[in-house]
Amino acid sequence: MKSLGKKIRLLRHQKGWSQEDVAKRLDISIPAFSKIETGITDINLSRLEQISNLFEMSVVQLLTFNDHEQEQKFVNELDLVNKKLTDRETEIIELQKKVIELFEELRHNKATA
Fold it and tell me: Keyword annotations for this protein (predicted)?
């Protein structure tokens, strides 16, 4: 059960939730939820369904959730976001060049007028 608790903790962190947040959503005490995460308390099927619903996954997905697969998914998403950011930075640099060219053209036209 300790690995299930670790999975639940990882999911909680990914959502940015505190133990208190999850305990409130599950309508249990913070120490009770902490014991679930640390594997001290075994989870019954009802609680398992409640937790899986909270993280918007099936019980099977929660039980078979693989940390490495999740990490790879986030790495791929991060790579995609970084590429988009790089593309936007390139776009901004090109726009800045155009603004400078237009400014220089206006300044040149003003000087010759």
Answer: DNA-binding
| Cβ pair 19, 37 in contact under 8 A | yes
Note the pLDDT tens digit of each residue in 10-31: 899 989 999 999 999 999 999 9
The pLDDT tens digits for 59-82 are 998 888 776 666 777 778 888 999
- Quick one: three-class SS letters along 26-80? HCCCHHHHHHHHHCCCCCCHHHHHHHHHHCCCCHHHHHHCCHHHHHHHHHHHHHH
Fold of 2-65: 434 Repressor (Amino-terminal Domain) (1.10.260)
Count CA within 13 A, CB hemisphere, residue 109: 6
pTM: 0.57
Is-contact 69 33, C-beta < 8 A?
Answer: no
